[in-house]
Design a protein that fits this description.
Layout: H1 2-23, H2 30-34, H3 36-61, H4 66-88, H5 95-111
């Protein structure tokens, strides 16, 4: 957890400094306090979109192999983004949205299958046809 806190804090300092240099100052921060929608959006993205996602990622990496944790986190980002858009922004959705989210979740399940092993070799059996030479 300490690593996540340090990474988040360092990222906040570095990226805010870069944004201030690019914009020629920090006057643009006043927008977040005078336009409530902008302030809530930034707060949501900072607290939920960044901080909680980093915590979830490090929690996951500590419990399962890194390659599976990374693949799981990257694949689920689009599903959580779509759900957040529907719930928070009242985005429209249809059957295509549901089919897309099911396809992503099914892909995560397939990618994380352990697969059956061959008794002779002890190696994982491939689901793809063998290359014939």
């Amino acid at each position: 957890m300490e690593l996540t806190l340090i990474q988040s804090a360092l990222g906040a300092v570095v990226f805010n400094a870069a944004a201030g240099l690019q914009a020629g100052g920090f006057g643009w921060y006043s927008t977040y306090f005078t336009v409530p929608e902008a302030g809530w959006s930034v707060l949501y993205l900072g607290a939920v979109g960044s901080c909680l996602c980093y915590i979830a990622f490090h929690y996951t990496v500590a419990r399962i192999p890194e390659e599976k944790a990374a693949q799981l986190q990257i694949s689920i980002i689009c599903v959580t983004g779509v759900i957040a858009g529907i719930v928070v922004l009242q985005d429209s959705y249809g059957w295509q949205t549901v089919v897309g989210m099911v396809a992503v979740v099914w892909g995560v399940i397939l990618a994380n299958r352990t697969g059956k092993t061959s008794n002779a070799t002890g190696r994982r059996r491939s689901y793809l046809p063998a290359n014939e030479s």
